[in-house]
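Hi R.,

Here's the chain you asked about this morning:
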Amino acid sequence: MVQSILSYNFMQNALAAAVVASLICGIIGTIIVEKGLVSMSGGIAHASFGGIGLGYFIGIEPIIGGLLVATGASLGVGQIQRKTRTKADTVISMFWSAGMALGILFIALTPGYPPDMTSYLFGDILTVSDIYLRIMLVLAIGMSLLVFMFFNYFKLYLFDEEYAAILGINVLGLERTVYVMIALSIVVLIKVVGIILALALLTIPTATAKLFSDRLSTIMLLATIFGVVYSLTGLCISYYLDIPSGASIILNAIVIYGVLGIMRRRKAFGIKKA
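And the predicted structure, written out as tokens:
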């Protein structure tokens, strides 16, 4: 079975992309969950659709447009939230709606036959190219090194922002760094599971990891492992049943999380959280 899957170059790229994406989800997904940025991340994901549409409209790589808009949206949410009294959910919903609306508008205005946006909305990991895989790997390694080099600073920012400020830590700089990493992660995941499902892959592995541990570093490690399991098994299911890969990965993750959650609640494992 393994030999059959690995005999195709596109499957090799897909499997490698699944592993790299899992590393991103394990680290950045944990930050998102622990800091309560799930809603914001969903808004950034949908806002990136505007950048993808803009990329088609002006004739550049759509992912580059998505990256620029996602980064701008993530920083914009934080800036508006600090400068005004508008609640975060309200700002996020506006960016969410505006991004999707602009994406639809730019695609409609693009000359020629309208492009197929299915792979961007729902993902198609089988279309990951060698170049895209290298970009994913560079971003994953870069973000992982950044988090682990300044792990204690990020930990303070996540759990006690006020104390971090008292210690003289640049909390605003950390916040902006986190927001940019979230934007990068989402754009990377677009090819794997798509805009619509990216948030699920960022949160489900972390939610599963939290069933077994409360320690931040352990959660990141377990979330990465669960992400690999979810992605690879979901991809194999997709390959053999000939169903969409993004949906297969997410549904597989939800089922496994549900089973582990039930077993954990019934203390079937007989182990304590680390």
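The mean pLDDT is 84.

Let me know if you need anything else.
M.
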